[in-house]
């Protein structure tokens, strides 16, 4: 039986020990280096960032939004070093279409957090301007994503809201970063 330990009825040697030739070997896929770019008609130009094992690598980029003075940062986590897929594109399109509804849904949670921090301002949905979208590696299967808003009533604050299954669940308030596209 070829390939086994039992002798071949013809008395030939075990092919795994003698004169065995490989038909072909699959080449090892070269890993994508950090800094690689990818262009998408919807997501714009994205740059790849490789993370250490155990953490998701991601693509990030900025694009101008016609209805805002701020750029929109898009961060798409990926498995291994894949490019963002159609699911990332679909989620970004959906989130941009629903940005006013999502801002309105998180106003109460944001105001509660502002009161906890003893900040003198409160926000309305018109005060929250979408500035970043953070998506997980499989956004259509993972119900979590984060949206970052610039609060126009307090220009130094950035509000990051974690959404689970389309509902705001947690809020983080940070000081504003320098936006390179402003």
Blueprint of the fold:
Layout: E1 37-40, E2 44-49, E3 57-64, E4 71-78, H1 86-97, H2 99-116, E5 128-135, E6 144-151, E7 157-164, E8 167-175
Parallel strand pairs: 4-5
Antiparallel strand pairs: 1-2, 2-3, 3-4, 5-6, 6-7, 7-8
Description:
The protein has 182 residues and is an alpha+beta fold. Helices cover 16% and strands 32% of the residues. It contains 2 helices and 8 strands. The chain has an 8-stranded mixed sheet, covered by helices on one side. It is elongated and about 90 Å long.
Labels describing this entry:
alpha+beta, single chain, eight-stranded mixed beta sheet, 8 strands, 16% helix, elongated
Structure summary:
With 182 residues, the chain is α+β, with helices and mostly antiparallel strands. The chain is 16% helix and 32% strand. The protein has an eight-stranded mixed beta sheet, with helices on one face.
SSE pattern, N- to C-terminal: EEEEHHEEEE
Q: Uncertain spans, ≥5 residues at pLDDT below 50?
A: 177-182
Quaternary structure state of the chains depicted: single chain
Question: What is the global morphology?
Answer: elongated
* Biggest sheet overview: 8 strands, mixed
Mean pLDDT: 83
Distance between the termini: 72 Å
Determine the structural class based on helices, strands and strand pairing: alpha+beta
Count the beta strands.
8
Query: What is the spatial order of strands in the main beta sheet?
Result: 1-2-3-4-5-6-7-8
Task: Report strand %.
Answer: 25-35%
Q: How many separate helices?
A: 2
Indicate the percent of residues in helices.
10-25%
């Amino acid at each position: 039986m070829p390939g086994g330990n039992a002798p071949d009825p013809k008395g030939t040697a075990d092919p795994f020990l003698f004169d065995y030739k490989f038909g072909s070997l699959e080449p090892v896929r070269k890993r994508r280096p950090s800094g690689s770019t990818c262009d998408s008609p919807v997501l714009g130009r994205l740059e790849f960032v490789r993370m250490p094992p155990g953490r998701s690598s991601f693509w990030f980029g900025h694009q101008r939004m016609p209805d805002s003075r701020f750029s929109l940062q898009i961060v798409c986590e990926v498995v291994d070093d894949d490019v963002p897929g159609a699911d990332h594109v679909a989620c970004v399109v959906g989130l941009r279409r629903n940005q006013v509804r999502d801002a309105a849904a998180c106003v109460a949670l944001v105001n509660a957090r502002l009161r906890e921090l003893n900040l003198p301002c409160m926000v309305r949905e018109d005060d929250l301007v979408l500035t970043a979208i953070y998506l997980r590696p499989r956004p259509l299967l993972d119900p979590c994503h984060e949206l970052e808003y610039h609060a126009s009533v307090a220009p130094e604050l950035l509000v990051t809201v974690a959404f689970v299954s389309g509902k705001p669940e947690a809020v983080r308030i940070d000081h504003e970063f320098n936006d390179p596209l402003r």
